[in-house]
Amino acid sequence: MKTADHTSDQGVIFETKALNVFYGEFRAVRDIDLQVRANEITALIGPSGCGKSTVLRTLNRMNDLIPNARVEGVVRYNGEDLYDPDVDPVEVRRRIGMVFQKPNPFPKTIYENVAFGPRIARLDGDLDVIVEESLRKAALWDEVKDKLHEPALALSGGQQQRLCIARAIATSPDVVLMDEPASALDPIATLRIEELMLELKQDYTIVVVTHNMQQAARVSDRTAFFSVEVGDGGRRTGKLVEFDLTERIFTSPSQKETEDYITGRFG
């Protein structure tokens, strides 16, 4: 796989064209055209069931792990077809890290959580250095440096989520995907995660799914608003309504559906 070239095609890291995702016969999202640029935070917002997380999971082939999931259309990563048969999905997930909604540290020590990915990937370098640098980037080092060999599950929820971010960046990814990374956290821990995202975008491209519109407005450079089409039998299919600079989405959206959602008249 090609590594990120931030000068190519105006720094486009991901491009989807006519992206459709099916679970069996059910179409979860329809015809998604999206571009994600390097060293930006791209937020995916919209009501529950509109396919935000489904789209996010196509960007590192996590949908491959779901029985009966099928992806149609184009997903390019640095200009390369992410779903080409010759592309190794394990390598994809090393390059494109993921942080989930609920903090999910392994039942191991803090050190072993961060060291796990580099060990599996057989990365070059001193593990102690990788662990420390990852924890520093995740703004956690000062809080845990004296207890690296204590259980990760003894940390607070906010600390656990920052540990999961450290674990995601320990394998030197280009991109970090975040699926509702602060929804299980209190407001203070949420603020820490948001501050951390703004710091991390200097080194990584970030795509974040969030229900929190204020969070999207605070941290993201571009925002994609998804909505739902209800078909025969009440089946709900996600669609992309509008994708633009975040400031424009929140102050002068081009679609009435977006404006209604932003102002609370919808969803």
What's the quick description here?
This protein is an alpha/beta fold and 267 residues long. The protein is built from ten helices and ten strands. The longest helix is centred in the C-terminal third of the chain and has 14 residues.
Task: Show the helix and strand layout.
Blueprint: E1 12-23, E2 26-37, E3 41-45, H1 52-58, E4 69-77, E5 80-81, H2 89-95, E6 96-99, H3 110-121, H4 127-137, H5 141-144, H6 157-169, E7 175-179, H7 187-200, E8 205-209, H8 213-219, E9 222-230, E10 236-245, H9 246-251, H10 256-262
Parallel strand pairs: 2-10, 3-8, 3-9, 6-7, 7-8
Antiparallel strand pairs: 1-2, 1-4, 4-5, 9-10
Helix pairs in contact: 3-4, 3-6, 4-6, 6-7
